[in-house]
Each structure stands twice: as structure tokens, then as C-alpha cells.
Amino acid sequence: MAENALALAAVSAGYGETVVLEDLEFALRAGESASLIGRNGVGKSTLLETVMGHTVQHAGAIRLHGRDLVGLPPYRRVRAGLGYVPQEREIFPSLTVRENLEVAARAGAASGARRWTLTAVFELFPQLAERQAHRGNQLSGGEQQMLSVGRALMGNPMVLLMDEPSEGLSPRIVEELMRVLKRLRDAEGLTILLVEQNTRLALDFSLRALVMNRGRLAYDGPSEDLLRDRARLDSLIGVAGSDA
Questions:
Q1: What is the tens place of the pLDDT at every residue in 116-125?
Q2: Residue 239: what are its φ and ψ, rounded to 5°?
Q3: What interhelical angle do 141-154 and 171-186 show, nearest 10?
């Protein structure tokens, strides 16, 4: 049985004294992908930010391949093997595509099939190769998202955290992005935790679904069960938020 790549045990966290996540507990096996869904404001992004060390953790443990991350600053968590694609993308607008990627390059501890280099990222995203001399603020929204994913890969992570990667993108770009994510999942063996507001997209991407409600997990099980039971899905996340 594969070891756990990422494990949260009784985690409570938030911003300052405000607790957003309460007693969260789940684990991802090495090479497993899971989609985290739920209504707006239930704590999905906060969960990723907590794993990355951007919130105040009040209780519990977070382990990456058995290593306790609690108390480590974000840059050390990246060095330990976490990759993060934030919702806002947060690329460097004044740096070129190539410079954005180079500044994130680390030997890392990747568990996938390859080491991620400039050449590998440009092969994955040919459009970035064509635009490598352009600054970040000269890119389209879709290109910025590609760059954000590529930058995370340049750290050679063992676990990739992705926050709302399809937000604001055209259907064509979303289709291309999901093609890349499925390649990372299947061919590269990367462990992926995907936060996604488009529920249909999320459930189609991963075999396992996590549903959050009010800072807690309301469901942890097969995505297929939710796809088959629309009433249950609606009761968990609401019709307005399902996008299904």
C-alpha cells in the first residue's frame, strides 16, 4: 500500500484568533488525486493556505511524507516538497516568463517520473515557450495560469496544491489546462489536491472527492457516488454552487 504523501490530523486553523478550519482530518496517498469542493466561504482556500503555512494553526498536525510541517515557514514547506498554485496566480508581473520560472527552480524531492526543468515546462506548455521573453503583465489570463502551474512544477514538488485553476478562463483554456493536469496525474504520478468551484470539472478529474462545509469535511468518498446522486450532491454543496 502506498504511503501517505500528505496527512492532516485534527487540524484547526484560521486568521489571527478567528478559527476557520475545525478538526480537519484526511490523508492523500502518494500518487493519489482528490478534488476539494463546497460552497463559497466554507474554508477550501484556507485549507490550502494552512498546508502552505499562510494561516495561524491552532491545533493538529500536518505531515508531508511523514515529516511534520507545523511551525515551518512557507519557503521551507516548498523545499520539503509542496507546490502551490494560488487562486490569484501571483506571478511576478515585471519578470519575463523565463525569469518567473527560473526564480522558482529547485532541485526538490519530486516523486514523479521526471525532474522539472525549463525544457520540461516548455514542453508541457508550448505557448509559454513562445512567450518566454514576455513579461508577466503582458500575458493573457490563460497564459498566466499556465505560468503559475509551471512555476510550481519548477520546485519539483511531491504534492501539488491547486486553488481554483479554471476561474476566469475560457472553456478552451480550461480544457487545455485539464489535459495538463491529467497528464501530471497519470503520466507523472504527482499527488494533487485540487480546489475547484466547477463541481462537474472537479468530480470528473479525480476518483476521490472531499466536500467541505463550515470548516469541516462533510464528505470524503468516491466522486462517482456524487455524480450519480444529484440530490445528495445538491444537499452537500447547494444547487447554486454545483456548476454541474
A1: 999 999 999 9
A2: -60, -40
A3: 20
